[in-house]
Design brief:
The complex is a heterodimer. Chain A is of the alpha/beta class. Chain A has one domain: Response regulator (Rossmann fold). In chain A, 44% of the residues lie in helices and 22% in strands. Chain A is built from five helices and five strands. Chain A has a five-stranded parallel β-sheet with strand order 2-1-3-4-5, with helices on both faces. Chain A is globular and about 35 Å long. By secondary structure, chain B is an alpha+beta fold. Chain B has five domains: 120 residues, 2-Layer Sandwich (Beta-Lactamase), CATH 3.30.450; 109 residues, Beta-Lactamase, CATH 3.30.450.20; 104 residues, Beta-Lactamase, CATH 3.30.450; 78 residues, Helix Hairpins; 152 residues, Histidine kinase-like ATPase, C-terminal domain (Heat Shock Protein 90). Chain B is 42% helix and 27% strand. Chain B is built from 18 helices and 22 strands. In chain B, helix 12 runs antiparallel to helix 13, helix 14 packs across helix 16 and helix 16 packs antiparallel against helix 18. Chain B is rod-shaped, with a radius of gyration of 57 Å. Classes of the chains: A alpha/beta, B alpha+beta. Chain B: It is an enzyme of class 2 (transferase).
């Protein structure tokens, strides 16, 4: 059975975390393809490129917060401002090791963020996203 | 008969000029004659009253008076020193008279000789005086020094609560009524002075009344001299108890208040809004550092002049605002003292409003609150420091949790992966990652340690003199491999004689961090060149550490460059926490560090060290 999700973005600068997360997604057959980015700038540029070339946009973006060059916060700001068609269909999942309540509060100020995951990603986290997407497509 | 009438005729002219109000009547009460004074006394304007009836001439006389005339016509003499009659129109009239019947030759009563005075005015005044005495509770007394007999008015006895007919029998008895001790001595002395030298007295003393009560009286006395010898002393005695006691109580309260005020160092003042008249107490002068004996111009002006220049405008605005009905009337300002120190004053103002809602007087108090103010400032500073420390601690805790969590997460996931992994290639890769994650955890823990140590407060004892050139070359050698790997060059322009006052481990840590940063963030297109220079500025060593690396976008990151606010990054990017530690260490040693940088040109750190 082919995965339900065609394409996701994974934005994190920690290679170890990227490695273990990819391994999990492969086992869970979460997505057909994963595009990796080390920081927000790469990711936002790829999104705009995608949109201009009329390529398939990612269904989900997993986003780390603390990254060099362009942090997750800056990515969110750019994303909100970027002229990307149908971007509201993209689900952004913020990932962080932080359990800082201030950070969680700040995330709530971004309506584009679909959910917040405390690292590491678990099969249950992935399942929850999948169920949500299936429900939406049937509705 | 003839002789009688001729006699009357003669008498008539005699009577006319008599210096008393006198008239003669016949048995029918018709006037035979009258003195001019009689006419004047009773306001008679009828030209000729002879042969006219008494009551026709004096129609306003009380009819009751007729009974007296009638009785006298029966041959009785009659005398009265003053009798009050109520007239029909409601007025009172006081009459004083002396009436004798005169007899004809045959012995029968021929008529009356009347001396009649209208003493209404005198009597009214007398009554007024009596009433006044009662109202004023003032009595009169006199002491005849020839007979040693005393006399005093009833009021004196009322005041003394003695029987109304009481009169002291001896000279000494006059004085037993004064309270023994200070009061009696005072009066004895005053009396003596009056008798000897004629000095009058006016004193307020306590006397003991007939019922044993203490009573404040005012006693006034003066002496009368005849041939240089005092014959009489006389004066008044007034009951002043009802107002003397409240006055004393008030004086006592005021005295208490005054000592309370001077003890609490509160200055008081009053300002008349209409006349500008100002009253200050001594403490107020002191508080504002104005010489009470030696100032010119109005006090208001002097007060304004005493204010700290920075406060004048604000205080003026607050005063005006309060006058217009806003604000609490409490203001704080500073007084500039001659030695340039500052005294903090807290002033409270009240504006008194008259019955027509007109403001007429402002009064207030001033208090020295310098100590309180200084304590407050100190407290605020402490609170700020505590707040900052608390903030950075919270930040620190979150960062620790973040960083440790990210490593431990990776470690635990990797270990569980390696258990299940069969593929030897994959296993090898996971092992590599385990190693790298362990290293990262190790370096994070090391960094945390540094942070904790750099905030150590007991640093002064660890400071020693270190040769700066030696320290630099040692660190440079320690990271020789990194230099080779990056093909880095280091140019030193450091005076070999310069020493700095530092904690050796901190200096090593600072230099190491700067070196590794420069090499790590070198530009990709050119080899890293590091220039280190030292100069003496104000006898203190300044070190500049300059590279040609990637540089930092100062506009974007400048303010956070040494901060811990941005989470310090877990793996290769340990720059955030590194600089935070560097800054902490330098400041702990009493130095400073600043940075300038340009993207793609390089970064330059300037460090000022403490020297002895």
């Amino acid at each position: 059975m082919n995965p339900f999700i065609k394409k996701i973005y994974f934005v994190d600068d920690d290679p170890i975390f990227v490695f273990i997360s990819k391994k999990l997604m492969k086992e869970e057959k979460f997505t057909e393809s994963i595009a990796e980015f080390e920081h927000g700038k790469q990711a936002i540029e790829a999104l705009i490129e995608c949109d201009q070339q009329n390529e398939l946009l990612p269904t989900v973006i997993f986003l780390d917060l603390s990254m060099p060059v362009m942090s997750g916060w800056e990515f969110l700001d750019s994303f909100q401002a970027a002229p990307i068609e149908n971007k509201e269909q993209i689900k952004i999942i913020v990932m962080s090791s932080s359990i800082n309540p201030l950070e969680i509060d700040m995330i709530k100020n971004y309506p584009v963020v679909h959910d917040y995951i405390v690292k590491p990603i678990t099969p249950a986290d992935l399942n929850k996203i999948k169920v949500c997407l299936v429900n939406e497509s049937q509705a | 008969m003839g002789s009688f009438f001729s006699q009357i005729k003669v008498n008539e002219s005699l009577i006319r000029d008599a210096p008393i109000p006198v008239a003669t009547l016949n048995s029918e009460c018709e006037f035979l004659s009258s003195s001019r004074m009689f006419l004047k006394e009773h306001g008679i304007t009828i030209e000729n009253i002879i042969d006219k009836n008494f009551f026709d001439v004096l129609p306003s006389f009380p009819p009751a008076f007729k009974e007296i005339l009638d009785r006298c016509l029966l041959g009785n003499s009659c005398q009265n020193e003053g009798k009050k009659y109520l007239l029909q129109d409601g007025r009172n009239v006081w009459l004083k008279w002396k009436i004798n019947p005169w007899t004809k030759e045959d012995g029968s009563v021929g008529g009356l000789v009347i001396v009649l005075e209208n003493i209404t005015d005198h009597k009214n005044i007398d009554e007024l005086v009596k009433e006044a005495q009662e109202v004023a509770r003032t009595g009169g007394w006199q002491l005849n020094l020839l007979t040693y007999k005393a006399q005093w008015t009833k009021m004196v006895n009322i005041i003394h609560e003695m029987p109304l007919d009481y009169v002291p029998q001896t000279f000494d008895e006059c004085f037993v009524h004064f309270k023994e001790g200070r009061h009696r001595d005072l009066i004895l002395k005053a009396t003596h002075e009056a008798i000897e030298n004629g000095t009058p007295w006016d004193e307020e003393v306590i006397m003991i009344t007939g019922t044993g009560k203490e009573l404040w009286i005012r006693t006034k006395g003066r002496a009368e001299f005849v041939d240089g010898k005092c014959v009489r002393i006389y004066g008044i005695c007034q009951d002043i108890d009802p107002y003397k006691r409240p006055q004393l109580a008030y004086r006592e309260a005021a005295e208490k208040l005054k000592s309370a005020i001077s003890a609490s160092n509160v200055g008081t003042w009053e300002y008349d809004l209409n006349t500008g008249h100002t009253i200050w107490d001594d403490i107020n002068f002191e508080l504002h550092d104005i010489d009470k004996e030696n100032y010119t111009g109005s006090l208001y002006r002097n007060w304004k002049k005493s204010l700290h220049p920075d406060d004048i405008k604000r205080v003026h605005n607050e005063v005006v605002s309060y006058y217009n009905g806003n604000g609490s009337g409490v203001l704080e300002y500073r007084v500039l003292l001659p030695n340039n120190s500052v005294r903090n004053i807290k002033a409270s103002v009240t504006i008194l409003t008259g019955p027509k809602n007109n403001k007429f007087r402002a009064l207030g108090i001033c208090q020295d609150i310098t100590n309180e103010k200084n304590t407050e400032i100190k407290l605020k500073k402490f609170a700020e420091i505590t707040g900052e420390q608390n903030n950075s601690l919270t930040n620190f805790a979150h960062m620790v949790s973040h960083d440790l969590r990210s490593h431990s997460t990776n470690l635990s996931v990797l270990t569980s992966l390696i258990e299940d992994e069969k593929d030897p290639e994959e296993r090898k890769q996971i092992l590599e990652m385990l190693k790298s994650a362990t290293n990262s955890l190790n370096s994070t823990v090391y960094n945390l340690n540094e942070v904790v140590q750099s905030t150590d407060t007991n640093i002064q004892s660890k400071l020693t003199q270190i040769n700066i050139l030696k320290a630099i070359t040692t660190v440079q050698n320690n990271i020789g491999t990194l230099f080779q790997e990056k093909k880095g060059i280091c140019m030193l322009d450091v005076d070999p004689d310069y020493s700095v006052h530092v904690v050796p481990a901190y200096l090593d840590s600072v230099l190491l961090n700067l070196f590794t940063n420069s090499l790590k963030y070198c530009a990709t297109t050119r080899s890293p060149i590091i220039k280190i220079c030292t100069t003496l500025i104000d006898k203190k060593v300044q070190l500049t550490f300059e590279d040609n690396g990637k540089g930092i976008d100062m506009a974007k990151f400048g303010k956070n460059i040494f901060g811990m606010n941005k989470t310090f990054h877990r793996n290769k990017d340990a720059r955030g926490v590194g600089l935070y530690i560097t800054k902490n260490q330098i400041e702990a040693m009493g130095g400073t560090i600043t940075v300038t940088s340009e993207v793609n040109v390089g970064t330059k750190f300037t460090i000022n060290f403490q020297t002895i």
